[in-house]
Amino acid sequence: MTKVLILGGGPDAERQVSIDSATGVHQGCLDAGLDATLLIVDQPNIQEIQSWDADIIFPVLHGKFGEGGQLQQRLTQANRTYVGCQAQAARIAMDKMATKLWAAKLGIPTTHAAILDPDSVSDPDRAVCPIRPPLVIKPVADGSSCGLYICKDHAEWTNALTDISKSPNPPISMIEPMITGSEYTVGVIDDGSGALKALPFINITPASGTYDYQAKYERSDTVYTVNPDLTDDLVSNLKDWSLSLCNAIGVRHLARVDFMIDDNASAWLLEANTMPGFTATSLLPKAASADGLSMPQLCKHLVEAATRTHQTAPTR
After folding, report:
1. How far apart are CA 255 and CA 189, in angstroms?
2. pLDDT digit string (tens) for 72-86?
């Protein structure tokens, strides 16, 4: 029987979310009848990776190391078969600005943005804001809305910069206009033949108005609507844009692409996520369920997709 090793943890801010997700995948694999083991890791090196007794690695890590290309590069160098993107696609998707540039190249609507280097801000009170508020500040290479700031006026901009400057290791962040509207997500998975297909869409309505870390993982008042009422044109565009972006950057097996639809019914790409969450409130499992795949079936489906990728990979 194929041995599956599910990885959770990692060194990044989303470590606990990763452990929760990996635990969910582990249980899903067991329920699917797979020989599955859960391993909590930090930053495994190539020698450690080579020593693992497994046929398939399912790395359910979130954050820059775990899903931003570093782990994927080590898995490839160790000649391991694994679920998810290879290093290049993972790096592009983790970098929100790089994703925006790809989207612009493909004609996918996304807002303009600016980079905020915290090392360049010596006096938050006098820092010039490159984008007129309301605006959003978020790390270029992090997820789960970690480090997210909503600035509705100049005072909140200054307060955000002050807060960021006090952090011991402030990240490079991105500034973009705040879009007033509703957030939608499009899950993408392998269709069974190596191509990608879009799952049913989900509309996210947080009670607080902002889909931040607390709304995702710590509260139970966020409303998720599967197959929301959208126009045929919007459904077609969101599906086509999601698949176009994923195919262009080299996504394989699974991803989630997030959009905002503003008050004028215009859609704007937010970001792509190449290792979505697998917790009780996570969006990809909800979308897969609406498409007829239970959590165990989804986990088995992704393991099988990784197996096919390995079997059809060109020999060197």
Report:
1. 7
2. 999 999 999 999 999
